[in-house]
Write a structure and sequence with these properties.
Elements lengths: L2 H4 L16 E3 L4 E3 L4 H5 L8 E3 H7 L15 E3 L4 E3 L1 H5 L8 E3 H111 L3 H6 L4 H5 L19 H8 L30 E12 L6 E6 L4 E6 L3 E6 L4 E6 L8 E4 L5 E5 L4 E6 L2 E7 L3 E8 L5 E7 L5 E7 L2 E6 L16 E5 L5 E5 L4 E5 L5 E5 L12 E6 L5 E5 L4 E5 L5 E5 L7 E6 L4 E6 L4 E8 L1
Antiparallel strand pairs: 1-2, 1-3, 4-5, 4-6, 7-30, 8-9, 9-10, 10-11, 12-13, 13-14, 14-15, 16-17, 17-18, 18-19, 20-21, 21-22, 22-23, 24-25, 25-26, 26-27, 28-29, 29-30
């Protein structure tokens, strides 16, 4: 029998695995019996082409034997893993080797090809795409980090310049004080000398008159002052001060200025396992602490009530409260800088931009302003609307939540600079996304670009996608349905978890990016938590309304 067709006797149906398979699907590379053809065609994902096995075999292009060019290789030597012809067998080179029909090897290789293709398409290629995306993100992060380092370097330089300027002013004050003392001594000596000169002139005139007079009485009254005038005025002896500059030690100055931590560049092997069918991979989540740990209390001063906190860095925080002054503190509670709002009204909300500037929402004059150094620039002036909360996005845009002057409407607007790019106000049914009353509304952008709004008036955290589509509303955990929930401050962390302050119940709610309640943060002495922010290491900063303290908490293990 022709070995090309002898396979019919042993090839079984791939579906029922019992009946002989006289048919073959050219698309799926699958052997079929007549009874299973209809079942095979039920898979509508492909357009199937089923032909008789003989027809398929007749279309196969068998390789020519490199040793015997007139022969076709219809067999496969299993040990040598090469195609062979009947002449190769009779030549004795493959004595004791197992021969397979080349079609069987062809089929098994096709199965390997199919599995490799599936794994490449569904597993390996997406992994490489993910790696390429990570590299792209790393390049962006590298540029941002370089800009951050430059900004911090310039900031330290400015601080050093300020210190030098302060020293110069102090030394100039010493010069001014010495000048005053020197001048006062000279003027005193000048006054005494001029007074003596005037008296001597008068005595000379009197003596000349007496020498010319014949009046015995006048002459007899004369009393000599020559002994007094022989005592000449004291001569000022002044030792002028000199400036004794210290030699500038460049190495010591460099140490005082600061240094960079070393750059570390390493590569690590990425583990890869063949995924199980239907399995989905997800990044490992960082475990939450059962009880949050209080790291430090940062006191603020000058506020009746403290509202907002925003991280400038891991070591510095901006705060605002119930007056017109925004203050920058370090973690020791030392006041580093104060800025007064341009209008004189209190800021409704504050946020730090990607470049390190401070933006604030001024409800008093319906404006959004940028603080850069000592300058305040008005970025946006609203007409008919008042800003409530704002945040700076990963792309550098500003998100502002605002209410209409009549208090009947609320919307979120995205700005690029001062240009309005997007308005989010209604859901797909045309209903308002946000409550139209209650003055406190804050918002934050999540890592997945969701826009998260703490809508105190609605008693909910309202989360929409970057396109403005409603994703979910969180109204508190199912375990406490009777408790009032009024969210105030809101922030998100590196795990895309959402944290919102439950001011009246003295705790923080943590929910995941899909609205699932994860944990309360309490049992750490929180009193009236209001504004929230997290630093680059997921430490939470909580502004306490009544105490005026900012509490730094650790809530991940």
């Amino acid at each position: 029998m022709d070995p090309r067709y002898s396979a019919q006797d042993v090839v079984r149906c791939a579906l029922c695995r019992d009946a002989v398979a006289p048919l073959y699907c050219n698309v799926c590379h699958t052997h079929l019996c007549k009874d299973c053809v209809e079942k095979h065609f039920s898979d509508k994902s492909k357009v199937h082409t089923v032909v008789p096995l003989e027809q398929f075999l007749s279309t196969l292009n068998y390789p020519k034997c490199p040793t015997h060019p007139t022969k076709q290789c219809e067999l496969q030597c299993e040990q040598c893993d090469i195609p062979i012809c009947t002449s190769c067998i009779s030549s004795g080179k493959h004595i004791g080797h197992k021969q397979l029909e080349i079609f069987s090897d062809f089929e098994s290789k096709k199965e390997v090809l199919g599995r490799d293709l599936q794994e490449l398409e569904k597993s390996i290629f997406p992994k490489y795409q993910e790696s390429a995306a990570i590299i792209k993100t790393q390049k962006t992060d590298q540029l941002k980090h370089s800009q951050k380092l430059t900004s911090e370097l310039n900031k330290q330089g400015e601080a050093l310049h300020r210190e030098i300027h302060t020293i110069i002013q102090r030394k100039q004050a010493e010069i001014d004080e010495m000048d005053e003392q020197h001048l006062a001594a000279i003027e005193k000596q000048e006054g005494e000398t001029n007074k003596a000169l005037h008296e001597i002139k008068q005595v000379i005139q009197d003596l000349k008159s007496l020498l010319d007079t014949s009046d015995v009485g006048l002459v007899s009254k004369y009393r000599s002052r020559i002994a007094e005038f022989r005592k000449l005025p004291r001569k000022l002896k002044i030792s002028l001060p000199n400036f004794l500059p210290q030699k500038i030690n460049r190495e010591e100055l460099l140490k005082q200025f600061g240094s960079f931590s070393p750059l570390s560049i390493e590569t690590e092997e990425q583990g890869y396992t063949v995924p199980s069918p239907g399995a989905e991979s997800s990044p490992p989540a960082r475990p939450l602490l059962d009880v949050p740990r209080l790291i430090t209390d940062i006191p603020t001063t000058g506020y009746g009530y403290l509202y907002n906190v925003s991280c400038l860095s891991d070591e510095e925080i901006w705060t605002s409260g119930d007056n017109k002054i925004m203050k920058l503190y370090n973690l020791k509670g030392e006041l580093l800088k104060s800025v007064t709002t341009k209008s004189g009204y209190m800021p409704r909300d504050i946020a730090v931009t990607r470049s390190g500037g401070l933006v604030y929402a001024d409800y008093g004059d319906s404006s959004i302003n940028l603080v850069s150094g000592t300058q305040i620039q008005t970025l946006i002036t609203l007409r008919g609307w008042g800003p409530r909360g704002l945040c700076s996005t990963a792309s550098g845009d500003l998100l502002v939540i605002m209410t209409s002057d009549g208090g009947k409407q609320t919307k979120v607007v995205r700005y690029s600079g001062s240009t309005e790019k997007q308005t989010i106000q209604q859901d797909d049914q045309g209903k308002p996304l946000y409550s139209s009353y209650y003055r406190y509304k804050y918002l934050s952008e999540n890592r997945n670009s969701d826009i998260c709004v703490a809508d105190c008036g609605a008693g909910a955290v309202v989360v929409v996608s970057a396109a403005g589509k409603l994703r979910f509303r969180y109204t508190g955990p199912p375990s406490t349905p009777r408790e009032s929930f009024r969210p105030y401050g809101i922030t998100t962390d590196s795990q895309a978890n959402i944290l919102t302050s439950d001011y009246h119940n003295h705790r923080i709610h943590i929910i995941d990016q899909d609205g699932l309640f994860l944990r309360f943060l309490h049992n750490c002495g929180l009193q009236g938590p209001w504004g929230l922010c997290v630093d680059s290491r997921d430490h939470l900063f909580v502004a306490e309304y009544y105490t005026g303290k900012v509490k730094k908490l650790q809530y991940y293990k």
